[in-house]
Amino acid sequence: MTKSSTAVRQRIVAGAADMISRRGLNATSIRETAKHARAPLGSTYHYFPEGKQQLVTEAVRYTGEWTAASLRKALEAGPVAGLRAFLALWRKIVVDSDFRAGCPVLAVSVEEPPADEPPAALLAAADVFTEWENLLAGSLREHGAEPRQAAQLATLVVAAVEGTVAMCRAKRSAQPLDDTAEQLQALFLAAIED
After folding, report:
1. Could you tell me if 63 and 121 are in contact, meaning their C-beta atoms sit under 8 angstroms apart?
2. 6 exposed, middle or buried (CB, 10 Å; 0-12, 13-18, 19+)?
3. Which of 33, 78, 79, 119 shows its CA 20 to 30 Å from the CA of 8?
4. How far, in Å, CA of 149 to CA of 75, rounded?
């Protein structure tokens, strides 16, 4: 693939992730994604011959990788810094979108796919959540948290962030995320100070 075609393909994947984060899985079409990404409709079918399910799966993976890269970098300064960065990232997304965007990984997870489509996107979503949990748990363990507690706290963080992002959108306020951030930080500090 040429640089130009790679850029177009990447723009379509990023556009799909953005649309899913705003509209949900079922309300995101190939046609609207092409328009949103400013790409010809034919190129969408060229790059994603398996159709919407392939595009959605790649959009989930794209979101997962993008978020994991940010989280990995922030965790270099320790688990509390990583937690703060993870929460700040989602706060920025909801606030900058005027509470219109959430997490495309969650959107794919909660909307039932059509019966005739394989659950590839759902499996990708599970992998993304697991990767985020593993990154957080690994950092907690490296800084003294017990392995079981580290794993449980990591799951709590991912679940809490996903839930509070949805609450922020509904309430049109970042307060649920800010409140959750304060409590999660206290739990992290207690886990690594014990």
Report:
1. no
2. exposed
3. 119
4. 18
